[in-house]
Amino acid sequence: xxxxxxxxxxxxxxxxxxxxxxxxxxxxxxxxxxxxxxxxxxxxxxxxxxxxxxxxxxxxxxxxx
Length: 65
Description:
The protein is mainly alpha-helical. Helix content is about 85%, strand content about 0%. It has a domain at about 40-65. It is rod-shaped, with a radius of gyration of 28 Å. The mean pLDDT is about 80. Belongs to the Tom5 family.
């Protein structure tokens, strides 16, 4: 790590690494949030369809009696 003959990292390289790491974290968080929204949307659609089916079945039972 501190062996002689190794190059020292410049401040510009450190700053570039920090920026890249920050962007990576932001992209991971954004990706996770989008997956959450997608999952919620799919669940909502399935739930809505099942409720519509239940409502139509109740209407059919009501009209039969």
